Amino acid sequence: MTSTGLGLPAVPTHIVWDESLLAYNFGSTHPMSPLRLDLTARLAKELGIFDLPQVTLGAPYVAEDRQLERIHDPAYVAAVREISRNPQTSNAPLGLGTEDDPAFEGMHEASARLVGGSLAAAEAVLSGRARHAVNFAGGMHHAFAGKAAGFCIYNDAAAAVARFLDAGYTRVLYIDVDAHHGDGTQSIFWNDPRVMTISIHETGISLFPGTGFANESGGPDAPGTAVNVALPPGTRDAGWLRAFHAVVPQLAAAFAPEIIISQHGCDGHRDDPLSNLRVSVDTQRQAALSISGLADQFCEGRWIATGGGGYNVASVVPRSWSLLLAVAANTRMPLTTPVPQPWREYVRERHGIDTPTEMGDGVDMWWRSWEVGYDPNDDIDRTVMATRREVFPLHGLDPWFD
């Protein structure tokens, strides 16, 4: 295996990208701007990530109805097709043509292409061509089997999970670090003991979709396979990292996954307009590093990463997801890496936005590990303990000590 040039082994990594993914576009005033994808791809290219010898680039495809219907109701797929042809109409009971998910011409094809991107990532890993794969245009975790929600029409991450189940995998771990609860993905696999979904998000008391509490822990046939850490508003880097490391590694060890599929919505950033979390790009990168490490430890490196939310489209999303791509390629790009000047000039000239000069935010990355002890007066510790009490005993773990 070749080296990254930083003393690290290169990991065969497949990145799904094509400008056709920009067609997922709810309009110029909608928060889910395709500009965030365009600027991410441009930054990753400027940083040389696309040109690394261990990286292959591949285009997505429009998923067929049979692939969509693996996770979505056929009637729902038909409804999306219909509104895609007639975007002046709406179907509010199915979440289509609403303020969050306005209809647009070609919506079915654009949404199915996101699914095809995550399925292409899955195929790259299943075939052995790659150990890591990334579809940063994906991560549409609010889409339910029969309903659109939260800017999400089809659930590409769930489609990737299902592809591994259909290939014979019996333990798939889905980790969601978006600021919003991964409710759609959780619901699709709610009663499937082969899939564990872990979502770390801002509490539903203060943020859409209003779900994702500790007592949501799986269906009757799959107790303990839905895991939720509902963080209080204002959670910063140290608290977020403490919560992640008090829950995710322990459950990963107990579940022993064969593949990890993760959703890396970066809307928990302190400068994002649609959440109340206050984390940095540095923490978002650390989450990717930790998930990659879990894949190495339990899955022989098999890992698929998707994007997700992220609404500071120039200053946050491109840096966060370019760092995710660098982690996937096992190129440990320092947080002090300068943001390439040509990219900064392009963003300023084309969009009138001044962007940060470094890839990271320069925060203190220290966090207090769970082994130090539980503080009942700390809001974050209380929510972590609620999750551990709910789920850990179902996996033979002690909520106080493991």
CATH topology: Arginase, Chain A
Helical content, roughly? 25-40%
So what's the CATH class? Alpha Beta
Broad structural category: alpha/beta
CATH-level-4 superfamily name: Histone deacetylase domain
- So how many helices? 11
Please state roughly what percent of the residues sit in beta strands, choosing from under 5%, 5-15%, 15-25%, 25-35%, 35-45% or over 45%.
Answer: 5-15%
Tell the overall outline: globular
Average residue pLDDT: 96
Main-sheet strand order equals: 2-1-3-8-7-4-5-6
- SSE run: EHEHHHEHEHEEHEHEHHH
Assigned CATH architecture:
3-Layer(aba) Sandwich
As a whole number of angstroms, the C-alpha radius of gyration is: 20 Å
Please give the number of β-strands. Answer: 8
